[in-house]
# Entry
Amino acid sequence: MNGQDFKAARQARGWTQVEAAKRLGLSQPYVAMLERGQRRLTPRLARKAVRVLRLPPTALPLSEPPYPPARTDPQVLAEELAALGYPGFAYLQGRRGRKNPAELLLAALAQENLEARQAEALPWLMLKFWDSDNEWLVRNAKLRDLQNRLGFVVTLSRQVAEREGTTGPKVQALQNLEAALALSKLAREDTFCQAWLSNRLREWERQNRSDEAVRWNLLTSWKAEDLRYVV
# Structure
């Protein structure tokens, strides 16, 4: 979030700089400097502004490279998905604050072994928050060689959207993200966060994977029609 984003959000709420300053615990001159770009919104202030101005989680500050972490606790991932509204983990809502969806998506994809229920949630995450910072997604995916896994998620998301008759900016954004990831697609074969697969299971996945999995060099049998909560 930059100063212009902050100003637009304040104006959308119908607040003056004085009102916004009071709600954020700042002075009016400081708010004015933020909006003119003379002061930077710190991550802490940006998170508070997102909450006070009731902005979507895509406005939350993003981490700087290198990101994402190599290992994340599965329970934390489930609770963060719940915080963003994922129906499959609705019973966990309220246990954790919201996280930027782009960060959560890459954190999940970085796991060598991801629970199936969490892997199933990723296309939902991409579809619901399709207007995330896709440049950040691509840049950080390439830093951790996650572009194939991410590309597969985007492809599944686009397929679901098209099956539902969705058109317009959402589908266009997904298509653009697919194209950007395809430019740096890795030639090596990978799993969809299932490093535990035995050689026998890897061969089964190789023989039964979809055209989309083949395209992204992944050993997985996930298909768009298998997803329960994406719509």
Remarks:
- The chain has two domains: 3-55, 74-226.
- The beta strands are 190-191, 218-219.
- The CA atoms of residues 70 and 110 lie 6 Å apart.
